[in-house]
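Table S2 (text version). Query chain:
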Amino acid sequence: MIVDRALLGAAVLAACDANSDPKDIRAAIVDLLQNARKSGNEAIQTGFAQHPFDARPMTRAYTWLTDCLVTTTHFVATKILHPLANPTEGEKVSLLAVGGYGRGEMAPQSDVDLLFLTPYKITAWAESVIESMLYMLWDLRLKVGHSSRTIKDCIRLGGEDFTIRTALLEQRFLTGYAPLADELVKRLETDLFKGTERQFIEAKLSERDERHKKQGQRYVVEPNVKEGKGGLRDLQSLFWIAKYVYHVNDAHELVGLGLFEEEEFKLFERAENFLWATRAHLHLINKRPMEQLTFDMQVMVAERMQYQDKGGRRAVEHFMQDYFRHATAVGDLTRILLTKLEDSHTKAAPLLERIFRRRPRLKPAYEVIHNRLAVKDADEFLADKLNLLRLFEEALRTGLLIHPDAMRLVTANLDLIDDQMRASKEAQRIFLDTLLKHGNPERALRRMNELGALAAFIPEFETIVAMMQFNMYHSYTVDEHTIQVISTFAQIERDELIEELPLSSDILKTGINRKVMMVALLLHDIGKGRDIDHSILGAQMAKKIAPRLGLNKAECETVEWLVRNHLLMSDVAQKRDLSDLRTIRNFAKAVRNVNRLNLLTVLTVCDIRGVGPEVWNNWKATLLRNLYELTRAELENGMEKPTRRTRSTEARKLLKAALPDWSAKRLKVEISRHYDPYWQSLSTDAHVVFAGMLEDLSDDEIRIDLQPDNDRDATRACFAIEDHPGIFSRLTGALALVGANIVDARTFTSKDGYATAAFWIQDSEGSPYEARRLSRLSQMIHKTLRGEVVASEAIKSRDVIKKRERAFKVPTTITFDNDGSEIYTIIEVDTRDRPGLLFDLAKTMAASNIYIASAVIATYGEQVVDTFYVKDMFGLKFHSESKQRTLEKRLIEAINKGHKRAVS
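Corresponding structure-token output:
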């Protein structure tokens, strides 16, 4: 039992009899109600914990408990503290619940919205009653929102403000003078609601659009359960509109009115129940109103709702997949109801517009209803089940949206899309034409996906529908990411991204197999969500799916190769030193020909851009373009490809040309002091900068040059300093201390004992440093390098992982590669990112007498892959397995120690 009202009432009367002073009475009542509220909350929470998915009893229970508290304080205020033997007409006050409280749906931390309804201007007695009530409710720590109005006030304010009008729509009588509340209901209908249905609908839809702009789409990885797209507010808006227009008091009444099918109502109930349960768990975990499903909250809510790890995926991923499926259902229900409303509330288009509007020529099976593509005769339509696919192509061809009744027809008959239909040549043609012929495939794919038709036609797609990847790198669910990737490809084809993606745009102009490209884009992530490498599993699945889509043997083999290797180019570009010739040769061997290189390049670009709105940048573009150009030269030139020596010679010639004012003697000194890797790894611009920095450099001097590198979306930091062991560690420490994120680094030792190092850095926002900040940045780095600040101590205070990001689990793996470079061992450290990580790794290597020639840093949200090109103290590679294991152990210890510090 939540509260025994009889016992509570008796206790209240006894407390009032035992005290005479109003303050003492109020204190006694508050004490009683506080205990009742505490025990009631505990009972509700216990019941909810036993049925963590069943939210409806919980929301009603909190409402009932709140009713008990509010009506009790009203009784005490009106009968005990301010009794009236014969109230006048003006003192007959009605108390109503409004908003969510009025609707009878409350989360653990919901507001208590009250309306004190008075017949005329508020009297002194009424003011005293309201004041006493509010003090008691505030003492109970309830978040009370209140207003005191007459019926006339309600009509006037409701006419001016749709928020107030919506709250009044859900008013519910609690206690007091009931006839006044009844009069309000009648007057609202006759004087405010009637005849303003269209106005109300437009206002609610406008509110919804503004809310979605603010909160983001339903696929954002940290959705707002209440205000986000597909969230509770969307469901409530749906009900408000139905209540306003059709005067329903329960969503099930919409079935009887023909607005929803029975199955659609069940969908409404399931979505509502799930979203309310999620919101309630958020409130209970935080002990305050919390609507955002942040990463850390997702893990805790999934645990409270008893999700389990299974199938190679974490419990939180299963929970969020369910969340996004329900959010999608909310969108479908909204679309259905709004279309029905259009039938009765949409004004006819102006005459001239109807006369001159160009209507697309429809195929015989279709008609246009309210500018939407509708099916003329359902039975005839279903007689040829291929029409279930044709519908989407026809919508694309005509540019029309699909009518919800046609959508209903598809979802109700998905069982017709069977193996026989999938094997049909005509079905394959229709599907590929939908993707390739009309220039806007993402619109058809998104609708097919939301209605279940895509997963019906390609059953393997079902697993990734609404699948969330629990990390900070991916902004979308896997299915939405796939559609975003295809959208990018379509944009390139429409010449909309020529300036942003010149390389991909040029590749498409040369001509590629569009069918292969589109199918590879569609299937590239289809293997996700299992406990096996998704590229390998995806390739195995693509080998079976591609023939079903009508591709020939050679096309199928290419699709399979692309899916298997869809991460290869991105990995090489972002995790390897592209100045190392062996990197390019190995990649060229894997690609084999220019046709595959072209396809893989476009796939890689689309894939990265489809991860999220902030992921693609000039840095990635530059890396991919360099890798493409170097690999293409390798593939086309064969034995004529440049050697290390010819590349170094060419770099020296370019430096001479860039320094026309330098004497031959000065040039000879500069050119002779560097080894080949220096010439092969840096641009001529960097060589010019270092030439100036090294001239007349004294042994104890530190020279720094900071310049924006717009091509790479970073600031290039060049250092010239006397060489000594651990120089890379010192430089990373200095940069970490000033809050710089290192994205790439090169260090070189000159023949005359100086270190030249180039780092590419970004600020905390992932952007180049503004020009006005460079001078101060340089001063701070100088100060650190001179030893005025001990980096290892100072970094500790900054080396902190944010609370919302601590839920991520990233296993640490360390690999040693002696084949990827001719002269270096490549050490790849894949682990959890955090401030100061690179410094910890570099310091550990310095303590192990390891020379770091370069470091390439690739960040994927909370995961980072730091790749080091190194030699031992004798200038040799790390071939000894025992040395590798010893270093691996030290690096893991440094990572774990730093991680504990960051989360403590």
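Notes on Table S2: The chain has four domains: 5-194, 199-339, 361-608, 644-903. The first helix runs from residue 5 to 18.
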